[in-house]
Amino acid sequence: MDSAPWSDPPVTYVPSTVTRSAKIVVAGGFGVGKTTLIGSVSEVKPLRMEEPITQASVGVDDLRGTPEKTTTTVAMDFGRIHMAGGRLALYLFGLPGQARFQPLWEDLTEGALGCLVLADTRDLDASHDALGLLESCGVPYAVAINAFPDAPSYPEAELREALALDPGTPLTVCDARDRTSSLHALITLTEYLSERRSAALLESRR
Ligand SMILES: Nc1nc2c(ncn2[C@@H]2O[C@H](COP(=O)(O)OP(=O)(O)O)[C@@H](O)[C@H]2O)c(=O)[nH]1
Ligand SMILES: [Mg+2]
């Protein structure tokens, strides 16, 4: 499995090839793998704001799918990567999963070019709140199913229906622990954002 480059010598500076940058948000329910994905792709040591899960979360935060999870994001995750031949830097902001953090979601989503929504087929409903927020604030998004080994797989049409996705919304599958796979999910999102931008430009010239 590919690991993040910062586990070797840390890369701290934005490469001189970068000419454009974008803020990207990573959203989705509790335990879907947001912190894991940002950690696997980031070139800089990710900033994590994790706190231990305590007794207070019993019956509130659902740990059935991820019994080994011992901490939870209480503010945000932050990471950075560059892509598109080194020209584009993405600043990744991971949201906390629980809907009780909604005011924070709204703040962190401000100014984002787009969002990657992670979902787990064992609990697709857990990503509904994040999808609802993105719809209401008009942030374009792509969805990636983070494939846990014991999670059921469904035909794409059923997943789209369960998540109420528009036909044009990209839907892909990833393993959040794997750098190449996570990068692929982010590339799917950035290609979609770039197509939308080109279409909007064409429309404005008509
Ligand atoms: N098997 C498997 N475990 C994963 C995967 N992604 C995350 N995990 C584990 O699932 C737990 C929850 O992941 P985390 O990134 O903290 O979820 P978050 O709440 O969305 O930030 C952690 O213990 C991860 O190690 C995955 O793709 N496969
Ligand atoms: Mg997290």
What does this structure look like?
- There is one protein chain.
- With 206 residues, the protein is of the alpha/beta class.
- The protein has one domain: Rossmann fold.
- The chain has a 7-stranded mixed sheet with strand order 2-3-4-1-5-6-7, sandwiched between helices.
- Helix 1 packs across helix 5.
- It is globular.
- The site of guanosine-5'-diphosphate has 19 residues, from helix 1.
- The site of guanosine-5'-diphosphate (GDP) has 19 residues, from helix 1.
- Keywords: GTP-binding, Hydrolase, Nucleotide-binding.
Condensed summary:
The chain has 206 residues and is α/β, with parallel strands linked by helices. The protein has helices at 34-41, 102-109, 128-137, 156-163, 179-205, and strands spanning 20-28, 47-52, 71-83, 88-94, 114-119, 141-146, 171-174. It has one domain: P-loop containing nucleotide triphosphate hydrolases (Rossmann fold), CATH 3.40.50.
Average pLDDT number? 86
Structural class: alpha/beta
CATH first level: Alpha Beta
Rg over CA atoms: 17 Å
Provide the succession of SSEs: EHEEEHEHEHEH
For the largest beta-sheet, the strand count, sense and barrel status come to: 7 strands, mixed
Beta-strand residue fraction: 15-25%
At CATH's second level, what is the architecture? 3-Layer(aba) Sandwich
Count up the helices: 5
Number of domains: 1
Contiguous uncertain segments of 5+ residues: none
CATH superfamily: P-loop containing nucleotide triphosphate hydrolases
* Distinct bound molecules: guanosine-5'-diphosphate, magnesium ion
Number of strands: 7
CATH fold topology: Rossmann fold
The 3D shape can be described as globular
Protein name: ATP/GTP-binding protein
InterPro entries: Gliding_Motility_GTPase, Gpn, P-loop_NTPase
Family: Belongs to the GPN-loop GTPase family.
Keywords: GTP-binding, Hydrolase, Nucleotide-binding
